[in-house]
């Protein structure tokens, strides 16, 4: 896969990911842990059916024994579970912009993790892009924090998402060249762990048929499909670039919540979003202009 194709696919992934906030605002009666349970359960069901379609009908018979013996798959599965669970819980506790702004700390954390654990060097322009994006996020964060203690709690839960995401992208990158390790089951494992962990707290169920339809759509098209794509993309794109491109979810998610759910962001959120978008586009344009035909393996040429 060419780099440009991988970038376009990653932008499609962020488009699918960004739908969660707006869709969750149209639920009738499902709240809190029940929202997380149903989304994760539908995600696990979709992956149970999709993976054999992609890898052959005997996929699970061969994959499950390897799954139990692979620390990388278990670690990645735990990261996915934290991401799935914390994200939806945070959305039920605070505004969409608050959650997505907090998640946008992911690129900085991913770059730091890749530098510490993978010994990967980042191009100077990527560090500049990360710090500009982080400054925009900090501006948004300071404004949204005036909403009160409840916003603090929701954003505290949301903070688990970029930490788990940075850990996951770094782990996926470390295993990207290892053809013997199939990390696709980790996406399924994360969904199963998230559903099992939230099931006792979700009972008794209150979701309507309308809620179940929306949550099924989130489980399949907002989680299962894009998460399978992003695992494949980590074989082409460096971890820090995956995390930086994922910032588009922040802007799109706030936009959809504004246009579809009527949840308007503050002026500070809009200004911060412009800074994030400028950093993302600038990094990609400079990368396309300066990228050599064969990047050196020792440096992340983003």
TrEMBL record:
A Gene Ontology CC term for this entry?
membrane
| Segments crossing the lipid bilayer | 37-54, 74-93, 99-118, 125-143, 149-171, 183-206, 212-231, 243-261, 267-286
Q: Which domain of life is it from?
A: Bacteria
Which InterPro entries does its entry note?
EamA_dom, EmrE-like
Domain EamA residues, every copy: 5-141, 153-281
Q: Which Pfam families match?
A: EamA (PF00892)
Please provide the record's keywords in A-Z order.
Answer: Membrane, Transmembrane, Transmembrane helix
The protein depicted here goes by the name Permease
**What is the scientific name of the source organism?**
Roseateles chitinivorans
């Amino acid at each position: 896969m060419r780099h440009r194709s991988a970038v376009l696919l990653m932008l499609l992934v962020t488009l699918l990911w960004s739908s969660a906030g707006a869709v969750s605002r149209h639920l009738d009666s499902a709240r809190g842990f029940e929202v997380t349970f149903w989304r994760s359960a539908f995600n696990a069901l979709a992956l149970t059916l999709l993976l054999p379609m992609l890898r052959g009908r005997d996929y699970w018979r061969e994959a499950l024994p390897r799954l139990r013996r692979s620390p990388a798959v278990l670690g990645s599965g735990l990261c996915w579970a934290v991401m799935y669970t914390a994200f939806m819980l945070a959305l039920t506790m605070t505004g969409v912009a608050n959650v997505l702004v907090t998640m946008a700390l992911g690129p900085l954390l991913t770059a730091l993790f890749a530098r510490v654990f993978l010994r990967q060097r980042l191009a100077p322009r990527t560090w500049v892009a990360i710090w500009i994006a982080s400054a925009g996020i900090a501006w948004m964060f300071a404004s949204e924090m005036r909403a009160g203690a409840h916003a603090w709690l929701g954003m505290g839960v949301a903070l688990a998402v970029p930490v788990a995401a940075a850990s996951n992208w770094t782990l996926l990158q470390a295993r990207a060249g290892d053809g013997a390790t199939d990390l696709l089951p980790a996406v399924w494992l994360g969904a199963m762990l998230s559903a099992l962990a939230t099931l006792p707290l979700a009972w008794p169920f209150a979701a309507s048929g309308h809620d179940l339809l929306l949550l099924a759509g989130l489980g399949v098209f907002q989680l299962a499909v894009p998460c399978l794509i992003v695992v494949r993309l980590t074989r082409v794109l460096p971890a820090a670039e995956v995390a930086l491109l994922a910032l588009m979810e922040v802007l799109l998610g706030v936009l959809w919540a504004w246009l579809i759910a009527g949840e308007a962001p503050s002026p500070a959120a809009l200004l911060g979003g412009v800074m994030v978008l400028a950093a993302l586009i600038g990094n990609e344009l400079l990368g396309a202009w300066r990228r050599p035909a064969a990047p050196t393996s020792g440096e992340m040429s983003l």
